[in-house]
Amino acid sequence: MSRGRRPGLQWKPSEVHNEEGEPIAGIGLFNGADAIETGEFIGFYTGHWKEKASAYTGSNDYMFALCADYPADWHVCPTRKVDEQPCYEMHLMAAINEPPPMVLYPSNSSFELPPVPSLPPSSTRMMLVACCVLLCSFLRFLQVTANAVFKRWYKGAQVSNSFRASDAIRALAVHATRRIEPFEEILAHYGQRYVRLDETGHEYKPGLPARDLPVNMCQKPADLLGNFLPADAYSA
Fold first, then answer.
1. Less CB within 10 Å around the terminal CB: N or C of the chain?
2. pTM for the predicted model, two decimal places
């Protein structure tokens, strides 16, 4: 089981588009030929582990914080050269993108809203309010949602059969939150503290995060990996 992940995963140019319908520049993570079911383990987020006292600032685009249950900030960051992407052969989960923002109609679309029928003022207002509520619900339904989530694991026996039940570790894994079809791009939200800036320095909003899964709905990584666990997939 290569590098602490399920077999068949691929990295290639992402299919995520921006609000103008243009593809983003970058690499994405894609499923292989076999579907991934809800809760199944996809892979470990690997890299250099360290403890920091300061809050996560997002200065490194590939660094993740695991400070939820600890007084200090524990971080995992894929090794890479300055201003370069990580080696995806070594750190494949770093290729995961966030879901794109909602794109309904391209900027060059000729779509136009139908005219509002002539009604008494009060009826018109009521109709517009009802239409706005329905439209907001419809837009949220169409917005792209992540299909995976990052999960923290803290018990060694859950991530590898080589650990004892009493061994405490820190590991960050990616799990499917719904069925991921063959060759579908895997998308996950980076979290609320991630600083999202585009190439021009402006803040952007990604698509919706996936619903979180309780641990009992997630496949234990050890069930797939057995005794194998790369050294940079956890911190003891």
1. C
2. 0.77
Query: Whole domain around residue 157: which residue ranges?
Result: 1-100+145-236
CATH number at residue 18: 2.170.270.10
Domains in the chain, number? 2
**In a domain? residue 171:** yes
Instruction: Specify whether the CB–CB gap between 68 and 152 falls below 8 A.
Output: yes
**Taking the CB of residue 31, how many other CB atoms lie within 10 A of it?**
22
The 10 Å Cβ neighbour count of residue 23 is 12
pLDDT digits (tens, 9 = 90+) for 179-195: 999 999 999 988 777 77
188 vs 29, 95, 119, 164, CA distance in Å?
Answer: 10, 10, 46, 31
Closest by alpha carbon to 196, among 57, 69, 77, 87? 57
Of 70, 60, 81, nearest to 190 (Cα)? 60
Joined tokens for residue 42: 């996809």
Query: H or E element: which one contains 170?
Result: strand 168-176
- Beta carbons of 196 and 101 less than 8 angstroms apart: no
pLDDT over 90, % of the chain: 40
Task: Please give the C-alpha separations between residue 197 and each of 99, 201, 203, in angstroms, as whole numbers.
Answer: 15, 5, 4
Q: Is there a single domain that holds both residue 29 and residue 92? A: yes
> Is the domain of 28 the same as that of 136?
no
Pick the closest to residue 147 from 59, 40, 71 (CA basis): 40
Beta bridge partners of 64: 76
**Whether 87 and 157 share a structural domain:** yes
